[in-house]
Amino acid sequence: MGWTALGYLIAGSGVWGAIGWGIDAYFGVPKHIGLLTGMILGMFLAVYLIVKRMGT
Amino acid sequence: MFLAAEEHHPLLPIWQEIVIGLVAFGVLAWVLMKFVFPKMDQMYEARVDAIEGGLLRAEKAQAEANELLNQYKAQLAEARTEAARIRDEARADAEGIRQDVLAKAREESDRIIAAGKDQLAGERQSIVRELRTEMGTLAVDLAGKIVGESLADETRRKGTVERFLADLETAGAK
Amino acid sequence: MSQLATLTTSDIPWPPSTGDFFLPDVAGPWITKFTILVWLAVALIIAFFMLTQRNAKIVPSKSQWLGESVYGFVRDGVAKDVIGHDGAKFAPYLTTLFCFIAVTNIYSIIPTAQISPNSHIAFPIVLAVISWVIFNVVGIRKHGFGHYVKMNLVPPGVPKLLLPLLIPIEFISTFLLRPVTLSVRLFANMFAGHLILLVFTLGGFLLVGSGNIGLAVAGVISWGMAIALTIFEAAIALLQAYVFVMLSASYIAGAIADEH
């Protein structure tokens, strides 16, 4: 159970962080704003998913 | 031994090892799943069967024992009521017999008393009758002797005697 | 001690590096210490079960009980416990997996072997991929491909607008991260365990051979640590085998679970 939650957190921040990083690279966004936004968004989504999947 | 290929990155798999790993694990899984685990499962099933069968048998034996016990209890109760019934009957019989005997005894004594009374009465009567005839004869004989005459005439004699007796009775009654 | 010292200081490779995990081939890339150890593990496990289970009886002998208790542990303690009633079907695979990982892990503390094949990521990858294939196949068989994928990617009771954001996370965590974490966890534990034992053992040799009394005492303490850590490593070896099997079972359970 704990590992599933951890997996969601890693996957969440990983996926959206990577997409954000891609946007940074493609559009030349400065200071990794895309990456950071993506990671934070991913974290939120992961928490949301954990609650939905495992919360009663 | 420590002379190693330093340049190999530990997170990169060696493809020959992947093949060996797959084949080795495959062989292991095949042998175990073909020859070992089915036998173990069978053994497990047999064991469960044996235990469950044993339980069933034990349950059956228990049920039989219970039935037997109930039967014995029923028989015992029956015997008890039977004994009580017999005892009651015997008591009733004894009472009846006592009553019977008493009644018979009473009857017998009554009968004896009655018979005695009857006999007494009969005897008295016959004595009276005998006395009567004897007295008549005696009196006639006496009178004949005194008077000296034979009273041949029966009718006359009878009348005389009757008269005499009646006189005697009236005299006795006085 | 002085003889040991002269022997050690010059020959000990220090510090331990990842190179210590890639030993020269015994005979070509197909026959190495690692592959030999793996085949030996296969032979040992088969021999163990064959020996303990021949003349199996309803009332088990001691050795038969030993063999059965390994299977029973995985069947009752993992398969039936995690997967439920259908779990018994997966007990043979999970037991094979458990025995294979346990034996190959235990090599790390067996003298002359001293290293687990699982410290080469190839073997954990093989095992993780097999578990991955199995849980996906049983899931697809039970629910059908479309339904199974939808079940795993679309969380219930979520607004449609959020789905494009969530589906990639679900996909990565279920279908990619699971086998990766499964293999990396096993690999990293065996890798780190071996490295730590190397540090304390080789470090002990270095310290004892340094000629300085204080450092030599530290070296002896270092060996004591190595012995303590060897016991610890044995526990880790079995624990990781258990964790791997437990997680495989829980993935299978998740794949064949009915929707709630």
Structure notes:
The complex is a heterotrimer of chains A (56), B (174) and C (260). Chain A has one domain (2-54). Chain A has 2 helices and no strands. In chain A, helix 1 (2-27) runs antiparallel to helix 2. Chain A is elongated, with a radius of gyration of 13 Å. Chain A has helices at residues 2-27, 33-54. Chain A has 56 residues and is mainly α. Chain B has one domain (20-173). The termini of chain B are far apart. By secondary structure, chain B is mainly alpha-helical. Chain C is mostly helical and 260 residues long. Chain C has one domain. Helices cover 73% and strands 0% of the residues of chain C. Chain C has helices at residues 2-11, 33-53, 62-83, 91-106, 122-143, 145-153, 163-208, 213-256. Chain C is globular. The interface between A and C is medium-sized, with 19 and 17 residues.
What are the main properties of this structure?
heterotrimer, A: 56 residues, mainly alpha, elongated, C: 73% helix, disordered N terminus
Question: What portion of residues of chain C belong to β-strands?
Answer: under 5%
Rg on CA atoms of chain B, Å = 65 Å
Query: Which residue ranges of chain C are poorly predicted, with pLDDT under 50 across at least 5 consecutive positions?
Result: 1-8
Number of helices of chain C: 8
The rough form of chain C would be described as globular
Write down the oligomeric state.
Answer: heterotrimer
Tell me how many strands of chain C there are.
Answer: 0
User: SS-based structural class of chain B?
Assistant: mainly alpha
Blueprint (SSEs and pairs):
The complex is a heterotrimer of chains A (56), B (174) and C (260).
Chain A: H1 2-27, H2 33-54
Chain B: H1 15-147, H2 154-173
Helix pairs in contact in B: 1-2
Chain C: H1 2-11, H2 33-53, H3 62-83, H4 91-106, H5 122-143, H6 145-153, H7 163-208, H8 213-256
